[in-house]
Structure formats: structure tokens, C-alpha cells
Amino acid sequence: MKYKRIYIEITNQCNLTCDFCAKSHRPKRFMSVVEFKMICDQIRFFTDYIYLHVQGEPLLHPDLKEILEIANQNKLQVQLVTNGTMLHEKIDSLINSPAIRQVSISLQSMQTIGYLEDSNNRARLLNQLTQLAESGKIVQIRLWNFSEQVFTNGLNNCLSFFNIEMDDLFIEKKRYLTNTKNVYFSLDKKFQWPSDPVSSSRVGTCYGTRTMLGILSDGTLVPCCLDHDGAIALGNVFSSPFSELIDSSRLKIMYDGFNNRKLIESFCQHCEFRSRFD
């Protein structure tokens, strides 16, 4: 089976504590280069795309350059998700890595700490986004938890840089192309993490196990990128072959359930995000 993407959390440590991000109870750790290589050696037969994301800030990883090189050696295209505050430290590695396909920047994170209100920070960020785009990388500027209340002067200045007015943005569009090649905005509504359940249902479906999987920094295999604490632990890739883990009965039962619009796991039954696939 071929997955559209596999999330690999190279670290669950972050330099920010944004209020919209789920709180993890796992010990903080960095995935080693050896561990990352072990994963890539196995999953390269099952996907072409890896996302360096679940939780944590990937640009914090001291061996990011080596990690990207290993991904390239395994012909895996990388989509990296960052809060953007450390972009200036790793911009050269991202531009020069043939493995990097897309860099997603969370303006929501920067908004939380007032990063964009500093004109020097803002100018540096916009310059870096332009450099990435000009180098051929896709730049996704994320504006999630979308509402009019999030629009400060700093954010509006960023939009103006790409000739976008606030009134141009509609949640229904989801993806808003800019006047700059390779740069677009990704918009979305606020949602509750499954760890903070607001509803429960046994009916529904999801992309988890069907088109995506996630691997946490400690090697735990999970069905999707929202299972940030390993509530549905499907084994560990550091101790068992990936090919065996995806053949487990628990994963297959989940997979069949999603295909028949049945939510098998309690975690999925309390996940609000799955309602988007109704």
C-alpha cells in the first residue's frame, strides 16, 4: 500500500507555547540521525512524501541538514511545517536541500507572540519567504483559527506585501493564491483537538490509516497527525519493522471502519476534525 504522506516528528520540542496547540505529556526528545535513517530506509517503499511535523519545531533540530540529506538519498520529498521564528537560522539549508518541496509557515504562531509587529522581524520574514519561493520551493503561509480578530497591523502588512486585502480572504476558499509565484495562503477554521473532546460519534470517516500515518519522535506509530500523544499506539518503528506494523489487526480494523463510516477508536469518536469529511 502507498500512503500519500507520512508524518515524521523529528522533535516534539518547541520554542513557543501557543495557546491553540495541543499540550503534549510526552518527554521532550530529538529523533537521532540514526533513528531517522532507520525510518526512511523502511518507509521509502510506502510513500513519496514525508511531513516533518506532528508537534515541535523542526528547525530546532541540530542535525536538520543531515536529516534532509537522508530524505533526499531515499528519494523522499519533504514538506516542513514551522512557526517561522527560526527561519533565518536554517534558510540556507532549506533553500539548498533538493528534498524540500514545501515549507509551511504558521502566521498564527507569530501572531501569538507579537512577532509580526516588529518591522525588522516582518521584513526579514518576507525576504526569506521570497527567497524560498524564488528557489523553487512552495511556500504555504498558514492562517488557521481564522477570524477577523486575528488581523493586527503586522499581519495586514504581510498580506499587503502579497497584494491581498483582508476582505479578499474567505474560509471557503481554503487556498488563496498570491501574486508571487509559489506562494499561497492556507486558511482554516479553529477546531478542537481530540484530547479536548466536545462531541462524540461512532459514525464518520478519516484519512488516517488510509492515506496517512504518523511517527512520533520516540518511534511510536500513530494513525494521523492529530494523535500527538500516541493515544492509538500502533507499535514502535524502532523495535518492529514498519511493514509489520501496518499489517497489524488494530490498524486494519480502523482502516475497514473508516471505509464503512464507522469510528472504531474512542479517540476518533471524540475527534471534531473528522466531521470535515462528512
Average of per-residue pLDDT values? 89
- Distance between the ends: 24 Å
Number of strands: 9
| H and E order | EHEHEHEHHEHEEEEHHH
Return Rg in Å: 19 Å
The low-confidence runs, each spanning 5 or more residues with pLDDT under 50, are none
Largest beta sheet: what is the strand line-up?
Answer: 6-7-5-4-3-2-1-8-9
- What is the molecular shape? globular
Number of helices: 9
Class per helix and strand makeup: alpha/beta
Largest sheet: 9 strands, mixed
How much of the polypeptide forms β-strand, as a percent range? 5-15%
Write the layout of secondary structure elements.
Layout: E1 5-8, H1 33-43, E2 49-52, H2 64-73, E3 77-82, H3 87-96, E4 100-106, H4 107-112, H5 119-134, E5 138-143, H6 153-161, E6 175-177, E7 183-187, E8 212-215, E9 221-222, H7 242-245, H8 249-259, H9 266-269
Parallel strand pairs: 1-2, 1-8, 2-3, 3-4, 4-5, 5-7
Antiparallel strand pairs: 6-7, 8-9
What does this entry look like structurally?
By secondary structure, the protein is α/β, with parallel strands linked by helices. It is 29% helix and 15% strand. It contains 9 helices and 9 strands. The protein has helices at residues 33-43, 64-73, 87-96, 107-112, 119-134, 153-161, 242-245, 249-259, 266-269; strands at 5-8, 49-52, 77-82, 100-106, 138-143, 175-177, 183-187, 212-215, 221-222. It has a 9-stranded mixed sheet. It is globular.
